[in-house]
Amino acid sequence: GEDVEQSLFLSVREGDSSVINCTYTDSSSTYLYWYKQEPGAGLQLLTYIFSNMDMKQDQRLTVLLNKKDKHLSLRIADTQTGDSAIYFCAESITQAGTALIFGKGTTLSVSS
Amino acid sequence: GAVVSQHPSRVICKSGTSVKIECRSLDFQATTMFWYRQFPKQSLMLMATSNEGSKATYEQGVEKDKFLINHASLTLSTLTVTSAHPEDSSFYICSARDASGQGANSPLHFGNGTRLTVT
Hints:
- The structure holds two protein chains of two kinds.
- Chain A is mainly β.
- Chain A has strands at residues 4-6, 9-13, 18-24, 31-37, 43-50, 55-58, 61-66, 71-76, 85-92, 100-102, 106-111.
- In chain A, strands 2, 4, 5, 9, 10 and 11 form a six-stranded mixed beta sheet that branches.
- In chain A, strand 7 (61-66) and strand 8 (71-76) form a beta hairpin.
- The model of chain A has no long low-confidence stretch (mean pLDDT 88).
- Chain B is mainly beta.
- Helices cover 0% and strands 51% of the residues of chain B.
- In chain B, strands 2, 4, 5, 6, 9, 10 and 11 form a seven-stranded mixed beta sheet that branches. In chain B, strands 1-3-8-7 form a four-stranded antiparallel beta sheet, with no helix packed on it.
- The relative contact order of chain B is 0.32.
- The mean pLDDT of chain B is 88.
- The A-B interface holds A 30-31, 33, 35, 40-45, 48, 50, 88, 92-105 and B 4, 6, 31-32, 34, 36, 42-44, 46, 49, 51, 93, 95, 97, 103-105, 107-113, 115.
């Protein structure tokens, strides 16, 4: 079945770059997503990448995709304390209209 | 951007009562909405897929008679937790996909979640 794996914790200093990694198993995934969840809140879509892309950059966020290794990463440049949250990687199931499969989330802690 | 409104944000109820949670897409139409459940410090578990005008599709292990889903319009889906028990206490999050987007691969937009506590 589908599975998405992420490391559970990452701790960085303010101003440093953060890199959150994710591996997935469904090779037919067409889109992969990064969501952010702040305490007690729902999920906020940060960015997503189409499987035929290797990289996507959006301001401080850079997504790298290695489709051969089924590895996805999210880099946050100049990490701020407001970036502290849980970050979920998700892959789409190939059938139309169906949901996403999420990893367990990486808790990013940013210290000043 | 696309907004999904979920209500209530927090509810406390007594064991044996029923609770209804609403999920609305505010600026787009959603033929499909999804209901997730999140346990503390865990990932989201898909409970069911709600399709406008038809019966919901439940994931294995989710009791359809306990978690009633109604998707009566393109902007509203409701989840009713019937005869709630303390083990139903959890964080429930709905999400919706813009029907005018890229089909199955349009990003999901999430509500802010409902914290249900059953005493």
